[in-house]
């Protein structure tokens, strides 16, 4: 008769310290999944990298450590829209550090996924997780696929800011935010980031990546591969669902219209010397706006294209050059004081 194993239900690949750490992590971070726990255990040397994620997953499953036991978890239902472009989800994933020109910096992956087709409509790698980088990813996605009805994002500063709100109003997009500290509500993009790490990131030799441009090109290759791979959630490939309802999203009126929608906007009062200040930098404006409150439209990385919009017209502004202004002829009237004094 076969004898039942004495260590049934335990893991031979996880030592006692690793097991204790798993219990601690699940108690402190009940929503952390097995892949994330495995990564932390390896980073903190509780287990060697040769121990598989499956070992951690089996241990959590056999010991009933699923996050569903957490009483603070919200009741959720699986859902999806019935057409492409009805809702897009966006988020940022922290990636490993890369060394470029002798400087080590963390990479940030900003990704947008369509809630119906699971198509990755936009993505990019950056050294900063900020509002303007997300705006660039969103603009490229809209140029390629049209304007979504809704945009679902979290409350991070990259996604919850006045500029994004104004951009969405200009585009006619309903901007939705998750509840605070409820990233799980963006389930589709969150699940995709797990897939990104397991299928792509963990297979890379990070030491061979020497620039952000190289890393970003590799990400674009991954996105093309993902978008043409069978997806169990939709029982097909994303492009098939996209093609079935691709006419639903509205198209931008023109490229110029789309560019104008994505300009950042600020209000400023023009000083007596015909200047305004943006981010501690002084700019010259046309003198007819002295003492007036003006609306400035600009791109943070291209201030040469900044302008004042007034009654449908664009009036360019430029960074102040005080030395050059010393030699600029003023359009002031010449006063003849001899004539003002009368005959002597």
TrEMBL record:
Gene3D superfamilies: Ribonuclease H-like superfamily/Ribonuclease H
Record-level GO BP terms: DNA integration
SUPFAM superfamilies given in the database record: Ribonuclease H-like (SSF53098)
Pfam families associated with the record: rve
InterPro entries noted in UniProt: Integrase_cat-core (IPR001584), RNaseH-like_sf (IPR012337), RNaseH_sf (IPR036397)
Alphabetized GO MF terms: nucleic acid binding
Residue ranges occupied by any Integrase catalytic domain in the UniProt entry: 67-247
Protein name: Integrase catalytic domain-containing protein
Species the sequence originates in: Roseburia faecis
Lineage of origin: Bacteria, Bacillati, Bacillota, Clostridia, Lachnospirales
């Amino acid at each position: 008769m076969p004898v039942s194993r004495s260590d049934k239900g335990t893991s031979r690949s996880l030592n006692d310290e690793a097991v204790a750490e798993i219990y601690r992590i699940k108690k402190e971070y009940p929503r952390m999944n097995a892949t994330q726990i495995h990564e932390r255990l390896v980073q903190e040397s509780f287990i060697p990298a040769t121990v598989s994620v499956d070992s951690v997953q089996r241990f959590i499953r056999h010991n009933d450590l699923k996050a569903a036991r957490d009483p603070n978890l919200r009741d959720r239902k699986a859902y999806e829209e019935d057409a492409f472009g009805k809702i897009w989800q966006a988020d940022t994933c922290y990636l490993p550090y890369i060394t470029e020109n002798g400087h080590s910096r963390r990479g940030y992956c900003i990704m947008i996924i369509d809630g119906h087709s699971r198509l990755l409509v936009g993505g990019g790698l950056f050294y900063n997780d900020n509002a303007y980088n997300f705006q660039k990813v969103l603009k490229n996605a809209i140029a390629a696929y049209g304007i979504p009805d809704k945009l679902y994002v979290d409350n991070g500063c990259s996604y919850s800011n006045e500029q994004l709100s104004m951009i969405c109003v200009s585009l006619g997009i309903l901007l939705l935010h998750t509840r605070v500290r409820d990233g799980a509500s963006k389930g589709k993009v969150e699940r995709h980031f797990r897939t990104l790490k397991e299928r792509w990131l963990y297979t890379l030799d990070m030491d061979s990546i020497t620039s952000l441009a190289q890393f970003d090109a590799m990400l674009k290759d991954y996105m093309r591969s993902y978008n043409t791979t069978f997806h169990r959630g939709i029982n097909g490939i994303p492009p098939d669902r996209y093609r079935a309802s691709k006419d639903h999203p509205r198209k931008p009126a023109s490229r110029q219209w789309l560019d104008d929608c994505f300009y950042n906007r600020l209000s400023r009062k023009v000083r007596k010397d015909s200047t305004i200040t943006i981010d501690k930098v002084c700019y010259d404006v046309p003198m007819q706006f002295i003492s007036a409150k003006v609306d400035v439209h600009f791109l943070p990385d291209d201030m040469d294209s900044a302008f004042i919009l007034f009654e449908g017209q664009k009036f360019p502004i430029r960074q102040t050059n005080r030395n050059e202004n010393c030699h600029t002829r003023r359009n002031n009237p010449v006063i003849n004081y001899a004539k003002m004094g009368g005959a002597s």
